[in-house]
Amino acid sequence: MTTTLTIRSAAGTYPVVIGPGILSEVGSRLRAQTGDPDGGVFIVTDDTVHALGYADVVQQSCTRAGYAATVTVVPPRDESKSLEMANTLYDRMLDAGIRRNGVVLAVGGGVVGDLAGFVAATYLRGIRFAQIPTTLLAHDSSLGGKVGVNLSRGKNLVGAFHPPIAVWYDVQTLASLPEREWRGGMTEVIKHALIGDKTLFAELAATPMDRYPGDDAAERLVARAAAVKIAVVEADERESGQRMWLNVGHTVGHAVEQLSHYQLNHGEAIAMGLCVEAQLALDLGLADTETRDQISFVLVRHGLPTVPPAFDFTEVVRVLNLDKKHRSNEWTFVLPVRIGRVDIVHGVTETALHKAWQQVLTGEENQK
Ligand SMILES: NC(=O)c1ccc[n+]([C@@H]2O[C@H](COP(=O)([O-])OP(=O)(O)OC[C@H]3O[C@@H](n4cnc5c(N)ncnc54)[C@H](O)[C@@H]3O)[C@@H](O)[C@H]2O)c1
Ligand SMILES: O=C(O)C(=O)C[C@@H](O)[C@H](O)[C@H](O)COP(=O)(O)O
Ligand SMILES: [Zn+2]
C-alpha cells in the first residue's frame, strides 16, 4: 500500500508519497518528475543512516535512472546543523560538479533534511531538493519547506523557506529506528493530533504506540499526522500567522533542547515544552486542568519525559528571548487551549512563565 498526499506551495504543488519500498524507486520517481538526468544528484545522509545502507539504495536507484549521483555523509544529530557543515557541503557540491539543474536528496532525519535543504536553498542561489525521511519525526521536518541551521546562540536562527520538489517516505526505514528516536518522533505526532485531530489524540491516549508498529500502521500514522501539518502549511506557508500553531511546545522546548546541549533529542525537549506550556495556558486561564492533564498523560503513555532538567531559569530566559516568534518587546507563545485547538498568545511575561516552569519542575501542578 502507498499513500500519496500533496502540498500546495507558492513554488508549486509537490507530492508526499508514504509507503514501503520507496527508497529503491527514488531514481525512477525523480526521473518521472523532473525529466532530466543532467546537473547531478547530491545525496546527503548521516553516518548512522549511511551504515544502514539507505543512501546507497537511493544512489543505486539514481544511477539506474541515468543520474550521476554522489553520496556525502555528515555526523549524526544537531551538531551537523551548522554553517560550518553547510560550508563543507558547498565545497563537496562544487567538487561533484553540481549545477543549477542538479538536485539535492536528503536521506535521513530532521537534521539531514534541515541541513541539506538549507544548502539546496542557498547553493548557486537555490537548487531543487527532495526529502527522503528516515525518522518518524521527519514526517514533520520533511514537510512545509522550513530548512535551516543552528547558531551557537540558538536553534534554527538561520534558514529559509525552500519547499522540496517531493517527499518520498519509505516507512520500512522506520523499522531500524532506536526506540528512543521513535518516541521522540511521537511527540510531533501527538503535537499534530493536539493541533488538529482530536480523534487521533484520543486513539493515542487509549493505545500507546511506543515503538515501530509495522509498515501499514506506520504508514497510516504518518499520513494522519502529516495531513494536519499539510493543512496548516497550505493555509500559511510563510508563517505570518496560523503556521505558528506548529510551534506549540517549541518556545520552551527549543530552549530546553539547546540548554541540554542536544543531549535531549528534539522530541523529548518538545514533550517537556508542551507540559510547561500546557501549565502556562492553565495559569493564564486559557485552558482547563483536564486539558493540561490529557497532554501530559498522552506523553507519558508514549514513554516521553514531561519535566525539564533544573536549568538556571535566567539561562532559560536568555535562550528563549531569541525565539523567532517574539515581537519587539513581548514574548509570543503558542499555547494549547483544548485538545484540537492551540492559540497564539502575545505578551506572555517572564513571571507567568517562571510560575509554570516551577510548578512543572516541582510537581506542584499535580496538586491543583
Ligand atoms: N524543518 C522542520 O519543519 C522541522 C520540524 C521538526 C523538527 N525539525 C528539526 O529536526 C531535527 C530532529 O530530527 P530527528 O529527530 O529526525 O533527528 P536526527 O535527524 O538527528 O535523527 C535522529 C537519530 O536517528 C538516526 N536515524 C535516522 N534514521 C534512522 C533509521 N531509519 N534507523 C536508525 N537510526 C536512524 C540518526 O542518525 C540520528 O542519530 C531537529 O534539528 C529539529 O530542529 C525540523
Ligand atoms: O513547520 C513548522 O512551522 C514548525 O514549526 C515545525 C516544528 O516542529 C519544527 O521544530 C520547526 O523546525 C520549528 O521551526 P522554528 O521556526 O521554530 O525554528
Ligand atoms: Zn518540532
Automatic annotation (TrEMBL):
Its main location: cytoplasm. It catalyses: 7-phospho-2-dehydro-3-deoxy-D-arabino-heptonate = 3-dehydroquinate + phosphate. It is found in: Cytoplasm. NAD(+) binds at residues 110-114, 134-135, 146, 155. It comes from the Bacteria. Binds 1 divalent metal cation per subunit. Can use either Co(2+) or Zn(2+). Its EC number is 4.2.3.4. It holds the Pfam family DHQ_synthase. Its cofactor is NAD(+); Co(2+); Zn(2+). SUPFAM superfamilies: Dehydroquinate synthase-like. Residues 73-183 form the 3-dehydroquinate synthase N-terminal domain. It is an enzyme of class 4 (lyase). Zn(2+) binds at residues 188, 250, 266. Keywords: Amino-acid biosynthesis, Aromatic amino acid biosynthesis, Cobalt, Cytoplasm, Lyase, Metal-binding, NAD, Nucleotide-binding, Zinc. Pathway: Metabolic intermediate biosynthesis; chorismate biosynthesis; chorismate from D-erythrose 4-phosphate and phosphoenolpyruvate: step 2/7. Residues 185-325 form the 3-dehydroquinate synthase C-terminal domain. HAMAP family: DHQ_synthase. Belongs to the sugar phosphate cyclases superfamily. Dehydroquinate synthase family. Catalyzes the conversion of 3-deoxy-D-arabino-heptulosonate 7-phosphate (DAHP) to dehydroquinate (DHQ). This is 3-dehydroquinate synthase. The gene is aroB.
